[in-house]
Amino acid sequence: MTLTVVKKGQEIEFDSQFDTLNAAKGYLAQFMAYNSFAMDLLSKRKLSEKQEAWVHYLATEHKVEAEAPVVEGEFISLVEKMYAGVKTPTRKFHLHLPSGVSISTITKGVNQGGLYIFENSNYVAKITDKGVLKGDVSEDVRLILEDACDNLLKLAQLYGHESGNCAVCHRPLTDPKSLSYGIGPICMKRLEQ
């Protein structure tokens, strides 16, 4: 069945992947619990035609994306390295790098398994769990991220040498050995894997 929704002022015509409204609703309930708009639609007793079209659209869009072949992005090794340093899956792992760049794992929500990228403590982009960079970043940030794919520990150490703080726990480096490494010994183990 062909339906139409208006998204950001633009009409989008699409073919629903679902034969009935109940099938689309069932799919949404199962796979889109993180989407507040979808959950709001599902909570209504009676839907207008426009709302029904949105239920079909959201379910179809998600299903098509889920069935698409997985393509790994250029930053997949950075994602893997960051998650290798995670101690507890429910706690974020936040790492400071030179030039004001920092990276954080994502522990919940639709972006879970990816990374948030910050520049001078401001969010600038994300990297999906497949390693795809989403968002506009400066050339400096892109170069740091590209370097981090191969040299994450070295960049963390460089941050420590420049700032005098550990790149992982952000505590001041006071021990002579830690100062020479540019990172604390416990935190270094999280990045050596």
Description:
By secondary structure, this protein is an alpha+beta fold. The chain has 2 domains: 2-67, no CATH class; 76-191, no CATH class. It contains 7 helices and 7 strands. The strands form 2 sheets. Strands 3-4-5-6-7 form a 5-stranded antiparallel β-sheet. A hairpin with a 2-residue loop joins strand 5 (115-119) and strand 6. Helix 4 (76-84) packs parallel to helix 5 (139-163). The longest helix has 25 residues, at 139-163. It is elongated, with a radius of gyration of 22 Å. The N and C termini lie far apart (51 Å). The mean pLDDT is 90.
Question: What is the compact description of this entry?
Answer:
The chain is of the alpha+beta class and 193 residues long.
Topology:
Layout: E1 2-7, E2 10-15, H1 21-31, H2 36-43, H3 49-67, H4 76-84, E3 94-96, E4 101-105, E5 115-119, E6 122-127, E7 133-134, H5 139-163, H6 176-181, H7 185-191
Antiparallel strand pairs: 1-2, 3-4, 4-5, 5-6, 6-7
Helix pairs in contact: 1-3, 4-5
Give the structural class. alpha+beta
Spell out the helices and strands N to C: EEHHHHEEEEEHHH
The 3D shape can be described as elongated
Report the total helices: 7
Low-pLDDT residue spans: none
What is the end-to-end distance? 51 Å
Instruction: Give the DSSP E fraction (strand runs of 2 or more residues).
Output: 15-25%
Helix content percent band: 40-55%
Which quaternary structure do these chains form?
single chain
Keywords for this entry:
two-stranded antiparallel sheet; 44% helix; 7 helices; five-stranded antiparallel sheet; 193 residues; 7 strands; alpha+beta
